[in-house]
Automatic annotation (TrEMBL):
Species of provenance: Rotaria sordida
Domain Nephrocystin 3-like N-terminal positions: 438-589
GO cellular component: nuclear body
Protein's UniProt keywords contain Repeat: yes
Key words of the record: Acetylation, Nucleus, Phosphoprotein, Repeat
Cell location: Nucleus, Nuclear body
Official protein name in the record: Protein FAM118B
Lineage, opening ranks: Eukaryota, Metazoa, Spiralia, Gnathifera, Rotifera
Described function: May play a role in Cajal bodies formation.
Main location (coarse class): nucleus
Family: Belongs to the FAM118 family.
């Protein structure tokens, strides 16, 4: 998931991220020794307190205890438990004129102590504004910040500049020291949605900053997280900025236990690994772009001069085509006079694979949509999956499309009657049939390069010798350069499109040559070669400008704002082992980019994405186009999901 990670790094470097902290952080920081560090654990403790104090009957306590220790508890059960706990405390308060509810929170949440500090410190080092749904003071204790309750923030006229707010931990669900601020029962949750005008102070932050959620992947369902998202949707009038949730790589989402989930579709889940150590390394990695981008912000004027000079250089360098041997004198024609049609071949295996990814995603989205399964069916399917113990987070959505697997799941007579199993099977099969019918593969058709560029993020242009692949590469470069300069061009309909990328044309044989010359001593990676050689030492630039241009390219690659065209894959000498080159190309495609501060160079991220989703948001992130002859199958080992277009 290279693009979301790259966007997070950029936004953190640009001071454009707000972090929400959930109970998972408190659980880790308290070393999981104190069982009240998450909301469910606090509820269990409250139920036991009410029961042992003689306020709650055996039957009522046993009912809650059974549900909470099984997979049958639903949203209303948790809220009912919270309501009962608070009600029992308040009844006793009235009898003895003492606030037992406040005392209970202080003796539980208030007594949490930080045992492991590294996770909170790593979050603090990101330098972002921090909000939390936790009631405790663990963040303040470790980071040395002040507590700020939501009701205090709304009413006390605190300076709400971003830099000032960074001195605080803003508790959106309250803090144990202020009992009136605590959001605990169902009535308390309703208070979140009162006085919308008072919450306008947060609206600008929510609408303009990227929201990052950490510590909200501790269980199958997190009511605090669900309610938090509803509150964010309310505050922003359903227009929040980008939202990312860090989750375990082996995490899976079971069927939602809630009916209203439309706002959940706006969240992108970003896997960080399988354990706390992976999360710590991931958080450290998130700030890798910060030194590079913040240093470059200080060089804006000089950077803009070099950028414009480079783009004009590309236009002048590739704007004409020389025709040699046609007459006694060489002819030079404007390159843009060449118009090229492309033949799109949807029968190629890579196109079919990509299409199946889209179909699977659509199937998953509709399968989980509110109302597809009723509440009873969702509970049955959750139970059947758990009992079968055959749940695979990577495969199960796709497996629902396989009749044999679905039949095995529905064959559990202890859960499904024949009528219930048939009803679910009919729903799933009807959905599958509708999606497959709507996604029939079309016949090959002619279309222009503009359409290919808008539809596919990465692709290979294949053609016979002399078919014009190099000319097409130059055409793309000069038109993209014009777009970056705000000039009229043939690639985009208007010059104000936000799809422009700084173009770089790399004859791939030149990279192979430097490998051969340098052997293993000073060999550059393909990634380094891109930003070190945008002009191949053209005399159009002096040494200082070359350094500035290389720095600009590094920053642009980090920000995902580069179009790289690798020209002539087939021109790599036949005696050269192409396997290493193909591995480098695949690494460039499948991994994100990190900045090595110590050695001042870009490196490949450790986070991998084998499946390149070419048709999903093709304008996001760096883009790579390769040209090659069809003969020789030079391209066959490049990532399977990389589109091939016949020319």
């Amino acid at each position: 998931m290279a693009d979301p990670i790259q966007k997070l790094k950029n936004d953190i470097a640009l001071n454009n991220v707000v972090i929400f902290i959930g109970s998972g952080v408190s659980i880790y920081t308290a070393n999981d020794e104190q069982k009240v560090s998450d909301w469910k654990g606090l509820l269990k403790h409250g139920l036991q307190q009410c029961y042992h104090s003689g306020w709650m009957s055996d039957e009522e306590f046993e009912d809650f205890h059974t549900k909470f220790n099984s997979s049958t508890a639903e949203v209303d059960d948790y809220l009912l438990a919270a309501d009962q706990i608070k009600a029992y405390f308040q009844m006793e308060n009235d009898k003895i004129n003492n606030d037992l509810y406040k005392t209970w929170l202080r003796e539980t949440v208030g007594n949490l102590s930080a045992k492991r500090l590294d996770l909170v410190k790593s979050i603090g080092e990101l330098g972002c504004l921090i909000l939390t749904t936790n009631y405790d003071s663990l963040l303040e204790d470790v980071l040395g910040k002040k507590s700020l309750r939501w009701n205090e923030y709304y009413s006390n006229g605190i300076d709400d500049s971003l830099e000032n707010l960074k001195d605080y931990i803003l508790h959106v669900y309250g803090h144990f020291e202020d009992i009136d601020s605590i959001i605990f029962s169902s009535h308390d949750y309703y208070r979140l949605f009162e006085n919308g005008s008072r919450q306008s102070k947060l609206r600008e932050i929510m609408e303009t900053k990227t929201l990052l959620f950490i510590g909200y992947d501790v269980g199958i369902f997190d009511l605090n997280f669900y309610s938090l998202l509803k509150w964010i949707s309310f505050v922003t009038d359903d227009k929040p900025s980008s939202m990312y949730k860090l989750v375990k790589s082996n995490k899976y989402n079971m069927f939602h236990q809630i009916s209203d989930t439309s706002f959940l579709e706006n969240i992108k889940e970003v896997p960080y690994g399988n354990n706390a150590e992976d999360l710590l390394e991931f958080l450290k990695n998130l700030k890798s772009f910060t030194p590079l981008i913040r240093e470059n912000l200080l060089l804006t004027e000089k950077k803009e001069f070099v950028r414009k000079k480079y783009l004009n250089y590309l236009i002048n360098e590739y704007a004409h085509v020389s025709i040699i041997g046609y007459s006694n004198t060489n002819m030079s024609l404007p390159l843009e006079s060449v118009y090229v049609e492309l033949k799109f071949d949807p029968t190629h295996p890579s196109i079919r694979a990509m299409k199946m990814l889209e179909i699977t995603e659509e199937f998953k989205r509709k399968l989980f949509s509110p109302g597809f399964f009723n509440e009873h069916e969702r509970q049955q399917l959750n139970r059947a999956i758990i009992e079968k113990n055959a749940f695979n987070s990577e495969m199960y959505c796709r497996d629902f499309m396989i009749d044999q697997w679905l039949n095995v799941l529905l064959s559990n007579k202890n859960i499904f009657t024949d009528n219930e199993a048939n009803a679910i099977k009919t729903k799933v099969n009807r959905l599958k049939q509708n999606i497959l019918e709507q996604n029939n593969f079309k016949e090959a058709r002619q279309y222009q390069i503009q359409q290919a560029y808008n539809d596919l993020k990465h692709f290979i242009v294949l053609g016979h010798p002399g078919s014009g692949k190099t000319t097409l590469s130059k055409w793309l470069v000069i038109n993209m350069a014009k777009q970056c300069l705000g000039k009229k061009n043939m690639l985009f309909d208007h010059i104000y499109s936000r799809k422009e990328k700084i173009p770089i044309l790399i004859p791939i044989w030149k990279y192979v040559d430097q490998i051969k010359e340098n052997h293993n001593e000073n060999k550059s990676t393909l990634l380094q070669f891109i930003y070190e050689n945008p002009t191949f030492d053209s005399t159009f630039f002096n040494n200082e400008e070359r350094i500035e241009l290389s720095f600009l390219m590094k920053e642009s690659l980090v920000e995902g704002n580069v179009l790289v065209i690798f020209e002539g894959l087939d021109e790599v000498p036949i005696h050269v082992d192409r396997s290493d080159l193909i591995k480098e190309i695949n690494t460039l495609l499948e991994r994100g980019i990190d900045y090595d501060v110590i050695h001042n160079k870009l490196i490949y991220s450790i986070y991998e994405q084998k499946e390149i989703h070419n048709t999903r948001d093709p304008t996001i992130g760096n883009r790579f186009i390769i040209t090659s002859r069809i003969e020789g199958n030079y391209f066959e080992d490049i990532n399977f999901f990389y589109s091939k277009i016949n020319y």
